[in-house]
Amino acid sequence: MMNSAPRFSHYRCCLCGKEYSPDQAIYNCLIDGGNLDIILDLQQIRKGKSREAILSSSETSLWRYLPLLPVADPGYYGTTLRLAGGTPLLHPIQLEKQLGVHTLWIKDDGKNPSASFKDRASAVVVARAREIQASTVVTASTGNAGAALACMAAAIGQPAVIFTPKSAPPAKVAQLLVFGARVILVDGNYDSAFDLTIQAAHEFGWYCRNTGYNPFTVEGKKTAAFEIWEQALLRRTSQRPLVLCVSVGDGNIISGLHKGFKDLLELGWIDQLPRIIGVQSTGSAAIANAFHAGDENIIPVKADTLADSISVDLPRDGVRAIRAARQTGGSYLLVEDDAILQAISSLGKVGIFAEPAGATAFAGLQSAVTKGLVTPEDDVLVMNTGSGLKDIRAAMQAVTPAPVIDPDMNSLKKYLGV
Amino acid sequence: MMNSAPRFSHYRCCLCGKEYSPDQAIYNCLIDGGNLDIILDLQQIRKGKSREAILSSSETSLWRYLPLLPVADPGYYGTTLRLAGGTPLLHPIQLEKQLGVHTLWIKDDGKNPSASFKDRASAVVVARAREIQASTVVTASTGNAGAALACMAAAIGQPAVIFTPKSAPPAKVAQLLVFGARVILVDGNYDSAFDLTIQAAHEFGWYCRNTGYNPFTVEGKKTAAFEIWEQALLRRTSQRPLVLCVSVGDGNIISGLHKGFKDLLELGWIDQLPRIIGVQSTGSAAIANAFHAGDENIIPVKADTLADSISVDLPRDGVRAIRAARQTGGSYLLVEDDAILQAISSLGKVGIFAEPAGATAFAGLQSAVTKGLVTPEDDVLVMNTGSGLKDIRAAMQAVTPAPVIDPDMNSLKKYLGV
User: Fold this and answer.
1) Least CA distance to B193: which residue of chain A?
2) Which residues of B touch A185 (CB under 8 A)?
3) In the predicted model, what is the mean pLDDT of residues A9-27?
4) Which residues of chain B does A114 touch, with a Cβ-Cβ cutoff of 8 Å?
5) Residue ranges per structural domain of chain B
6) What is the CA B332 to chain-centroid distance, rounded?
7) Coil, strand, or helix at residue A319?
8) Residues B164/B184, Cβ–Cβ less than 8 Å
């Protein structure tokens, strides 16, 4: 199926350590269903003077990091597939002062082509799909992941099928349909859509993008870590580990960030990992619960939070998500929905419009400061995972309604009290 | 009021040619109310080796073009104010082939911080507001312009007031409020909000951003022309004039693009202007009507189109908008709302999610090809003025609803007919 030599060494199960050949068509571990890590050929990367190549590259998207990716250059210049990643790093001094931290950065992944972090995963998965000549890429999704797949697939004319619970907001479904994906609403929940996706992929020979199932999603998501390396780590002077706050739903984004920093550490391009703090809503806390119980045993919850992108009953990448915090001296924090709404407002007031899941990470930072987990000496980076335009209903809950006046100066002065 | 020397030569009325000093606090011509052009000091710019400075700048936002802007560097690094502009140029080969043009580029201004072209204007106006030490910036808006002002003002802690007709969609009002602007709903239409804004600005000493009134909005918008110069004009080989398709509402965007290219022509950095084709909805055709009547006499209409960003009764920058097409060998085209919806779908299928006003320009190109206004030898650039996430309701009209099935393989196979 491959039309070129594999660009990684092997797959390795995160639970039992079993290794699989890169030529194998495989998703999860065949023994215990564990998530598979993709292990790079570090020797090859070092030989290729990759660090110099990356740092001097004129490419600004995530394809800048091609030497560290397990796929070949997909081509398709001038399409939205080439625009994933490369998102801006903001430095809102007002919030930095309010929180009293040494440095506060916010990385705005709402600026991706389909307006969420998920484009990183979908770009790499779609590139992989082309490599293995997949006829169709399929995914289960309640929103962002589907939009990301639909957008990246549309960019290169790759057929895509998306299974979505029929309870999904019509607006999110509209975005999938605009991108020309074949959208099939399922009379069931996300888990039933997830299972049907896997069956359909198996039976029809479709390539399955499902988050926490396809090993390439993490490889796409790790590119955010590489950007943080260039945008923040290489430019700061502090020797303390960077603190990284990120919201957690199924656990795949935090696992992707962790993987990226591990790649950099193994290459010797960084000498310490950032402290990764995962933030969940109290209404969807399966991974945080397991973290604080001190083990890796994820007990599903009945999720209920307004941050729909991280509202997850059964996290599909929970074990690696726990390790992302545990192995980096990080932690897990829980925040209430009210704090998430307040965080939307706080970020908005410095010009950053975040979706609830993105604001969750900032709410977590506020909590971390209060608890003393983050100190005035710390440099902190908060990941905003998506644009607030993705969920205007939540934004409406975060603000006070505007007054109505008659269109004349008397009414205006009366309202202003002048 | 100014805290530095003026960075332009003078203002000049587009109707009577009367000139005003750059130190004067002025909006429209005091004699005939004509829009004022800001005239640069070209000699100064040439002396500064500005072309070389720009082409070698590491700045990627619109502040790259500071030598050609009438404001000083506003500072505020790390804020969204520094991220306006610098939007991607896409090259969707599928659509290029379908249309049968030599080259098709789409410039995606939905990637601006508040997700529309209007950020360009607001960034420069807010920079100007700081220069003249304005206490408050005010604007009338039904959506994008207000969001852009609110976002840019929030970025630097500049107080902003926005007057919006109370009929504005709650979702758009929510975005204004999230950015922390003082939003006042007016029990009247846009024109009454516009007039109230001017009165309030006058009485309270606020700085007024109103489109087609404040001369600095065009100066911000012209930066899109500069980006087109670098991204397209400098990189192509054809000697034919570039064809530029852009949707037109109040006429300020097309005037801004025209101004940018005129600046470049006067500097000798380009040797011909692009042919600028303005596209309006049949339901909001005041400027197109005047263009085809052969004069500059704008007769207001009762606007009714789903493309709300270009739904305008009384265009505030109509004369310059007519000249943008007339002085460049361009034209004006009208498209039906149905064609706009189809264009949303066509762009979506290559991964670009445009708001109706953005898709209008693409619908116009399709019409231009049919009419022979654009030929197979032409290089064409279509400006997408905003993200489709700004108007999900319109997107929902552009797609066919998705089917619903039970979450099992039998139901799926039945639906797929396999």
Assistant:
1) A407
2) 402-405
3) 96
4) 353
5) 81-115+217-397
6) 16
7) helix
8) yes
Dist. CA B97–CA A80, nearest whole Å: 17
How many Å apart are CA A111 and CA A126, to the nearest integer? 19
> Torsion-angle region of residue B2: left (phi > 0), alpha (psi -120 to 50) or beta?
beta
pLDDT at A1: 44
The whole-angstrom distance between residue B141's C-alpha and the CA centroid of its chain comes to 14
Question: How far apart are alpha carbons A10 and B273 in whole angstroms?
Answer: 55
Contact status, residue B340 vs residue B364, Cβ threshold 8 Å: no
- What is the Cα–Cα distance from B185 to B44, expressed in whole angstroms? 44
- The per-residue pLDDT for range B100-158, each reduced to its tens digit, is 999 999 999 999 999 999 999 999 999 999 999 999 999 999 889 999 999 999 999 99
Rounded Cα distance, A126 and A155, in Å = 10
Kindly report the CATH number that applies to the domain delimited by A81-112+218-398. Answer: 3.40.50.1100
CATH fold of the domain at B81-115+217-397: Rossmann fold (3.40.50)
Mean pLDDT of chain B: 96
Record the pTM. Answer: 0.97
Tell if the CB–CB gap between B186 and A404 is shorter than 8 Å. yes
B226 neighbors B65 (Cβ within 8 angstroms): yes
Distance (Å, whole) CA B134 – CA B418: 67
One DSSP character per residue, A232-245 reads TGGG----SPPEEE
The predicted complex's ipTM stands at 0.96
Determine the 3-state secondary structure of B218 from DSSP: helix
Contacts of A387 in chain B (CB under 8 A): 115, 389
